[in-house]
UniProtKB/TrEMBL annotation:
Belongs to the bacterial solute-binding protein 3 family. Residues 55-280 form the Solute-binding protein family 3/N-terminal domain. Keywords: Signal, Transport. Pfam families: SBP_bac_3. This is Amino acid ABC transporter substrate-binding protein, PAAT family. CDD domains: PBP2_GluB. It comes from the Bacteria. GO terms for cellular component: extracellular region; outer membrane-bounded periplasmic space.
Amino acid sequence: MRLRGLMVGAVTAALALSMAACGESNDAGTANPPVNTQANFEAGTTMAKLKDAGTVTIGTKVDQPLFGLKELDGTYTGFDVEIAKLIAAKLGIPADKIKWEETPSKVREEVIEQGKVDFVVATYTINDKRKERISFAGPYYEAGQDLMVKSDDSAITGPEALKAANAKVCSVTGSTPAEKIKQYVDPANLVLFDVYSKCADALRTGQVQAVTTDNVILLGLIADSNSAFKLVNKPFTKEPYGIGVKKGDVKFCEFINQTLKDAAADGSYAKAWKDTAGKVAPDAPALPTLAACS
């Protein structure tokens, strides 16, 4: 989905509409998905264990408006959150039985390997290095890496302009964007934090001149900036987001993929987008082609 031409003012106004969260809805107008009360799974599978437990622990991010955000009242909102709820509901687990685990980029593989979470939905780009440690279902969305700068910055027009501007660039430790931006900046000018909200603070105070990650994440930060930031709008990568599970858990991976297919077919995938990221990027994306589980 192309995000070109989105107006920051519209973004800010739209996000303001999405902040309410309480009760049986995770934000205004976003009802929790219906639970599959007839769920029945093969004994010994991850699905059967979770169904029998009646609860699931899901890793997500808590500082990314539109995708994974913990609100002031303790509720969780965003597209990742809604995708996770769809999977839980298909397991027969209602949203109020989900335990959310904050999962920054640098610990995503670790929490899966250690069994601290049952799966991770956290703007988690599928790549070969990560697949050495965990397995991915999906992808459920494809983003693109971009840059966020101050609204009055005219010098940074794309990644190629960073060296000429001697710009310091911020990203998150362990993230794919942090690796991919290295070809465009001097090592001394790359600043890394554990979460993107700290990058936004560094941009606001002038410690860095740009923040880089996937465009949809940047749009959320822009929407929360009171018009202080803007998107350069020159995406330079493709980032397929996957759902992380334990290495080799093929049956669970296939279950999640089927859940995504069902959600695309019955409209719940499009609704999840509309109720969250769709508030600033209205055109719901098509579900990407799902990869084989291994």
